[in-house]
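User: Just a sanity check before I run the rest of the batch. Below are the structure tokens for the first item. I only need the designed sequence back.
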């Protein structure tokens, strides 16, 4: 059962990743480096590597996110998660959870970002926090099982 869930997660993750790749080719991202991407405080561009840091495209689009809408923040977190920008994704999921604690997908997204950063124990704690709020949520229970099996 767990193997099926893990395999489904891999397939869904690949599907999401391939959709992101189709919608934002690398050449487009390179062409979008403009003065809008320059940090006014430091004068540097927001172009980081693929180890959890936002690229210029994500930073540029983050200005359009409604910071008071947890679902907009969640969507931004998912986008960054799919692009393996785990630090940025974690930030968005944290902000979404500050605004709304009763949606399991916010906890799951945060745990996936933490797992991407190789912080598996923290990912488990986040799911356990979600289960404190939503004790009967099957998605959280499944995610906890998956994470616990990965850690062992």
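Assistant: Here's the designed sequence for the first item:
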């Amino acid at each position: 059962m767990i193997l099926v869930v893990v395999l489904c997660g891999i397939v869904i993750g690949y599907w999401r990743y391939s959709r992101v790749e189709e919608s934002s080719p690398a050449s487009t991202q390179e062409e979008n480096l403009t003065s809008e991407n320059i940090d006014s405080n430091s004068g540097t561009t927001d172009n980081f590597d693929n180890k959890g840091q936002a690229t210029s495209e994500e930073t540029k689009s983050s200005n359009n996110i409604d910071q008071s809408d947890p679902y907009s923040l969640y969507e931004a977190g998912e986008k960054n998660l799919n692009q393996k920008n785990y630090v940025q994704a974690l930030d968005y999921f944290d902000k979404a959870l500050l605004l709304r604690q009763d949606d399991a997908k916010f906890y799951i997204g945060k745990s996936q970002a933490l797992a991407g950063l190789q912080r598996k124990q923290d990912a488990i704690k986040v799911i356990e926090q979600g289960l404190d709020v939503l004790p009967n949520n099957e998605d959280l229970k499944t995610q906890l099982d998956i994470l616990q099996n990965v850690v062992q």
